[in-house]
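Worked example 2:
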Amino acid sequence: MAKPRKRHVQQEMLTRAGTTRRDGSRRGGKRRGAGRKPKDGRRAGAPHKSRPEIKKNWAIHVVMRVEKAIGSLRKRDMYRAVREATIAVARRELHDASVGFFRIVHISIQGTHIHMIVEAGNKTALSRGMQSFQISAAKHMNAAVGVKLGTPRRGRVFTDRFHEEIIKTPTQARNALAYVLNNWRKHREDRSDRTRGWNVDVFSTGLQFTGWREREGAVLMWRGRETYKPLVVYLPRTWLLQSGWRELGGGTIPFSYVPGQSRGHHAMA
């Protein structure tokens, strides 16, 4: 007598994401809790809003934060890394500005973040220029950390998207210049033993700035030490950063100005 044939129960095929199974349950698709989870921290899960439109006669105040693993940026190796990134941006402006111009006018390096005042032809040019800066800076910062650790570092350097504040008026321009160039005083970096006697922050473009009140009428710009290599930035071309901030924004800026938590800069650190 023939052995009875074994009948296999057909397995239910996997359904496409977002479709309903035979038992009424759903697999995949849009639902609460789906997707990549935000990382810890007070900025976790911040929505990526669309960048605002930018006009070529405006300026932009930009802030970037770095990961804790990078350590303090106010060290020589990190200064060199940032300087290399400013050179990369300058080369891009000279040789690859097809999407619009992007120029770094001023920069300030603080312990955990970097401030910049830039000019950009449009929001695409801003994004491309910032991408160029961050890629170069991350490469050189990781290399510097790797030298200290004795092993290459390839992790993320910047914690999130850069934050921007659009500068449209002379008063905004003066406030931004004062805030960025004297940001070290806000963080009390001017009170350490190594900075005693400094009038401006050498971890910024303060030495290239011609709008200090105490330097009004000076014929020559300051000269740093022979070993000091300044950050590579452009002279401003917008009226706001050339003369508008001084003529209509409130005049020159004193060395001793300490940025406060004024509206418009409170969240920029």
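Residues 127 and 213 are 34 Å apart (CA to CA). Helices lie at 76-95, 123-149, 170-181, 183-186, 239-247.
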